[in-house]
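Data availability (excerpt). The following record was deposited with the supplementary files.
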Amino acid sequence: MVNLIKNEWMKIFRRPGTIVMLAILVLSLSLVGIVIKSQHNSMDIQQDKNWQQILQDENNALKQQMDKSRTQAEKQYFKREIAINAYRIQHNIPPKEEYTVWSFVKDSSQLIMLAGVFIIIVSAGIVASEFNWGTIKLLLIRPINRTKILLAKYLTVLLFAMLLIAILFVLSSLLGAILFGMPDKAVSYLNYSNGHVSEQNIVIHLLIYYGLSSIDMIMLVTMAFMISAVFRNSSLAIGLSLFFLFTGAQFTALLAMRFDWAKYILFANTDLTQYLEGTPLIEGMSLTFSIIMLAIYFILFQFLAFYTFKKRDVAA
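Predicted structure:
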């Protein structure tokens, strides 16, 4: 299995397109840093001396809005904001914080979608290209189980995804430290859970945030891999996966406004950060529910991919 993964890994990095993808990711991150730095220099960040009173007034307004809210999701959102504001007042934590390396690392997480595009392209072609080039026969003449061959390809895609996310996190940390510097004192993230606010190490929070933000990408990569294995068509896999990457969440949100069954759609559950920093898309959803739905879709995608690859006459 290890040798199969090494072989697939070498195939990926022998393609000039892979180097271009890495270069585009690094260049995009650099451009984002330059733009934010230019905007940061022109902003005058001053803390209001009466910020405690401002937060108290904000909480009073939020309580009035919470009383008028009709959905449990809205009430949960207001409860979170009120609790965090109250915690800031009680522990003397101003709402306006200096923009530092950690702020830039979190903003850079938006580029995970760009990394997702690249990984989908690799995932969609890693199986289909073998058929297009005729090299699949060279793989199958070896005394290796077809399941191991396909599993090695999928694990290679996951390793490539982890590499891009790691590059994004590490480079954003280095670039952020250079452009914005380290904070003067330890920075904590105010985490709201089960009605209580607690301080969480900012680095741990960012690692969790990056991990949860990558779930959407991983599920779409798995879908692209399945389509590639079932239909042997990389263009179809790339097209469908990119379409869902950019529109799946929006269409699901529109359906969720009218239909409760929308919570069973894949894209209603891929954004697990909704349980970390916001409220569920549909009332009644929970982290456990979303994990179960993701597991069902994941198993379905993998079953279709492996069953088709094993049963179909791929040597033809």
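Summary of structural features: The chain has one domain: 2-45+98-311.
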